[in-house]
User: Fold these one by one.
Assistant:
Number 1:
Amino acid sequence: MRTSIIFKAACLSGLLALAGCSSSVTAPEKYSGFLKDYSGLQETTSPTGKTILRWVDPSFKSNNYDKLIYNPLTYYPVPKPSTQLGAETLDKILAYANSQLKASAAQRIQLVSKPGPRTLIFHGAITGVDSSKQGLQFYEVVPVAMIVAGTQAATGHRTMETNLYLEGELIDASTNKVVMKVVRKGEGKTVSNENTPITVDSLKTVIDNMATDATMFEIK
């Protein structure tokens, strides 16, 4: 009887842990302040099937524009290098993100350097790169395995999820009015534990998906 009660309690704890797994969208407490206004953001699905937060001016039509000023992505706020994510890696992540996004933008619209009619201005920033402990897997929802999982988490030996956060906006160059805002979180490869370095390769798929979405997105 006692064993049954313990098992049920363990199952309940495990289900609660699963419910608390990281969300696929950016939580409000993760908003960086890069965008001046976060109101109106709604969950939607990107062309690659990712859940993102987006707001689009109701009057916006992509076929009204045929030029884009691409301002390179920056980090906001400026990140502090760590043993898991060094300064060189941060530079490589930013460079790769800019090369992919700019190339994708150039595939669908003419890139220009000066504002004018039928022109959009892009501003964007990588607002976070981090790792978080994975939630308990279903097979771990048994008393002994939960003790092992808890020990792994406490000692830094639990598998970690890598995440990249991006915020961006499009501005009408003629009116200086924001016509679109996007806030998104992408999940990269897992790393063995919190001491395992995050690399560019850990986040390439996230960045590639963002670039593909930039190429395929359209509102008529």
Number 2:
Amino acid sequence: MPMGRRLAGMNYVFEFGQVFAAWDELLAGALRTLWLSAAAMAIGMVVAVLGALGKTGGPKLLRWVIDAYIELIRNTPFLIQIFVIFFGLPAIGIRLEADQASLLALVVNVSAYGIEIIRAGIESISKGQIEAGRALGLKPLQIFRLVVLKPAIQAIYPALTSQFILLMLNSSVCSAIAASELTGAANDIQARNFRSFEVYFVVTGMYFALSLIFWGIFAMIERTFLRQPATR
């Protein structure tokens, strides 16, 4: 009997047609994933810049609070973070829709990592370089643009691009609270046609394709804008 079950399992007929029949749902989910990722990254980087400035030049209490926030987020699962926001906040009267909770959770998560990345970029610029720029007669704006900003971006660019890819992939966890992103769309399709392997195989390919596309875009941006010598 066990052998019969195994043989029956080997006769599984793949039916990808049922998956591609719902292609519009998958595409809408992919676009929602991109929107969530881009919005979370943009907002998160603003928070991260403020946090990095506070950590490098703020008062001791502020630095302690920022450090505590970073360690809390980096040492707890993202799934728990999103559950606290979606299921926990209503206990204190704050109710968010699934997509709103997903965006907030992604921002909270990426900001903690972004603070450390941007702090490292700021601290990679030595005071000697700034003083050399002044000695060359550069104006403050030129010093910021050529001596501080561009080298700092060059230093942290690979880490930032990697963080965006990770953020996009982590957005799949938002399906746990029924957010309308790619994995959530896949779950809805699978619940209707029960073609689990086909649905998640296609979605795996879509995530992989999105990652490759963005890696290519980021590499092109780096070659075009970040590897050219700075000019006055």
Number 3:
Amino acid sequence: MSKVQLLFVGISEIVGGPELGLLLLTDLSRTRQVAIVCDSNIEYEIGLRTSKDVDTSRFLPEVLCQVSPLMANDHYEILFNSIIDGQYKALLVNKDDLTLTPMRASDAILLALVAKLEIFMEEHLFNRQSVHNMGGQNKMALPLNALSPDMLRRALKQAIEDENYELASMLRDEMKQREKRNLDE
């Protein structure tokens, strides 16, 4: 399996969705990027860690990493290996015994920042999901399959209100594909 190493580059807010944010990750060359949806709690927690004004050394994630010296880059990494119904699937990979522990994607990014773990995405997934890095701009296009069902419904409603019927049709088709896939399972 080929994988692409990713770097966390920042947080962006989703317009019209104040309770959600996007965690932006780029490849090492910073030419392509992916976005992982997070809730406001993770957005806040990551914001604390990227701010130079807050000492987080006594916060629970940092303390747990300090008391477990194995929770370090030598022994663990984060791997994104799929996306299902708009949710990236993340794994905490134990490099010593290859144990895979599923995690919520946004929590995996937080853990990677706290424990200084490397972040990877399966290459095929990265090539399918990434978009050109618009360097310095605070916006990004998201693939439809990266939207949660709730985000799809809200986007469809907005597309219809804006009379953007081409977008509405694409959103409706994505929703139908997911419904069919869920029925087939």
Number 4:
Amino acid sequence: MTQLRRGLGAVAAYVRSAPGTYLWLAVLFVTTVALHHMSPRVEEEFLRQRSTNIHELSSHPVRVLITSAMWIDGGHWLPYAVLYTAFHAQAERWLGTARWLAVCVAAHVLATLASEGALLQAIRRGVAPLSAADTLDIGVSYALAGVVAVLAYRIAAPWRYAYLAVVLTVYAVPFVLSPTFTDFGHLISVLIGLGCYPLTRSRGKAWNPKETLAALRS
């Protein structure tokens, strides 16, 4: 029982150390449960009104940029809980809530505008159909990609370059092989995250995996 209390206390302390991450996850949990109680037809129309597609961005830009980050497309919350703990929580603990949030907002907003702007140009050139202006576009993946990228600065060289190579592979390969506007947005998000380097200054010594391994062995 004592060990259980200690374990629960450690979990609670960890959650408190990244309040923005876990508050966001709590919102996503509530909205995901809400979606599961909707019929497919109602769900699609409901999400479309909160989507950052061209139509909604031109009519309600601020509202949809905020609300689109409060819903998960697909309805599976648990994988996001893992990803938020692995990346968002680490970034928030390292950068502090304000700087972490700045990275999230920059990646989410700028990548959304860039991808939808590219889609708008494709529609005008006749490459994409006019109906693409109402495409369903919600989710938190752009903010996540930006945070994954900025965490490269948390890792000491040369390990940083290996991590960065993996990140670029994960996000660049889909764009190269079968590019979509969402893939383009993800790649832009990564570049935005890397561009947030000034926010990482004076945030302490970079993590060195070699030192961690040595400490575990001793």
